[in-house]
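Order emerges. As here.
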Amino acid sequence: MFSIKSIKESNSPEDGLCKLITKLHADGPIDNILIENLTYYKVFHPETFTLYEEKIISSLGLFYKNTEPKNLYSFILSNIGHSHKVRFGEYLTPVQASVRTAVERKQFVSISAPTSVGKSFSIRDYIFDLQGDCVIIVPSRALIAEYIKTMRDKFKDDKKIMISSFVDYVFTKRKLRRIFILTPERARELFTSKIHLNIVLFFFDEAQVSEEKERGVIFDVLVRRVRKHYPEAKLIFAHPFVENPEAQFKKHSIDEVNSYSRSYPHNTVGKVFVFGHKNSKDYYFSPYIENGHNLKNCIELDCDFEKFAFDGKKSVLVFVSKASLYRGDFLDNFKKFVDNFDKIKSKRALEIIREVEDVLGANDNNHKSKLVELLKIGVVIHHGSVPLNVRFLIEDFIREGFAKICFATSTLAQGINMPFDIVWLDNMRMQGSSEEDKSLAFKNLIGRSGRLSINPTFDFGFVYTNNARLLSSRVNNSYRLSESSLLESDADKFTDEKELITSIIDGTFNEEINFPQTKIERLSNQHIFDLIKETLDLIYGDEFGKHLFGRENRENRDVVKDNLRIIYEASLGRELLDGELNVFNTAVVIFFHVIRGRPFKEIVGIRYNNISNRNGDRNALAKFTQPANKLPDSTLRHAYSLFPETKAKDVSYDAIVFDTYDYLDMVIAFSLSDVLMGAFYIYHSATKDSNALKMVELLKYGTNNTIHTLLIRYGFPPDDLKEISEYIDEISEENILFKPDVTFSHPYIKELIEWYLP
């Protein structure tokens, strides 16, 4: 192998490239230093590299890039690609073909490979060809968005495959194959007796979530339940940068005879690492050699990398903290470049921006959105609290090449398939309980640099840091999965998960209600039943909402809020802590807005006007509101404000948008609704009060409007229900029919309903 310096100073780059191709042919792309060498030959000797590029692409196994080779070597190797095309329908790489073969032949597969290798692609491609229902489990809302877009694009012309982000069984008149894309928390609904599915495959992507203390318990419980209820289904686990993927089999006592596991070290995308030294100069360095970050082993750049990166012609992912996005100071170090960006003129880009404005309510003169204003010059904000439909639009904006800079948090480290020319590490603070966890997240993040393209070229990207030593450490850290499940851990080590773990182990987990039996008993006492009855009377008495909405019913809303709190506390077996209580109360207030029929942007507007004191002294401090946080959380002991020491006039509209979305998604949908639905379901089982089932529906869908509820179950966005319902001719669990005049609806609505038309 060669040093960066020797490659730059080489007088015969042909000789070096030939040696690298020979080694690549013999060993495959398993050595990061070899891939790095190729990258620097392309950087320093581009003309010579072009002469060998076709051979390099072939030796990397990227057959889809070169289906009609022009040299003998590539022609011979192309036969491998053609054989994959015949067998699998795609020009798969050797790694992808290996994974595809494994999932075809084995019931249980657990693999690991670096970002950009395309492991998930080969598994998704197999899912496309299957018969029967499939479930894809991902750890985050961001990945749900990614998968839904990928799957819907693939199946947009196939009206026999329904893609859903929650578990349901509608459209039964159409003979459908169903693909569910779920988080571990949402997958629990697969096991109710009301759902009749033919699930033949479970794909657990980013399965290293099994190592997280809290979510790992939910993940492992899910795997155990899948093994019990769907014993014939295939189980596939995919991870990035994990050395022992076979640990998933040992955790869950999976027979290794019908199993396949492998950690693929293969890498086909180059990385150029650059660090800004404190001497104000920029250097190329290699994290793969010992002390590669020392100046004696580095090469000084002959340009200012900052100017090179932010010239407006490249796409740059800037990794920043979520706190800086909320504060607004994430731009401070980049303002000199951003201020020089021209306004976007593309008709398509402006169309996306207008849609984002409308969803956020940012087209109101009083609602100033920095997210929207930055989009107009090609600067993007992306993180897990951006509303999902806005995230779809933003990701389209990025993929279609309109983004010059994307300021993002760790959500992009979780497998979101959005490539950038450069990853700029504004900080190195990664989430994780250990250095190994942080290193894994870090390697995922820098994998966004230089993703594989379809172009017949060798792909590479840049990674910039101010801390080359820490970067080198994290790149070289290994990550191993635990070979024992968290369910086998001492339950006393857990706080809020202890009851769940104990019930799984001793067999007292009630699979119909999805509660431990001890929790069901606490929710079945007469006091809780009395509170539930009072709540139902206030919500449904006389007519829905008559005793709940309006200024005259404020005391009734407080009663309902207190009742729901006591019910929730009973489910936990403890009182809420001060911080938890603030989150709970805010969530219930937002829930009241939802069930009153207010759209997202109106709820945001109401909260913004209140917190920013729109009708009062705007120089006074912003009103208190606690940031959204998952519940329960035994560390949330104290109250703290989303806007500490902030004047009312300086309250960020975007921060309210993000916080409101987190309350709806993280708190109401993920933390509270299942528990409260379970409580009302238990009450109905005991009393047969039909209003309890209405409340379950209200908690699940945010409405008791039959048409709106069914539209949500069919997969339509909640904020579009009113407009879509105008075109409904007939709807039931069996079928959905639209009126003829739907052909004259807005193009956005027509696109939404196209798949559902006969």
Notes: Residues 653-687 form the longest helix (35 residues). The chain has a mean pLDDT of 91.
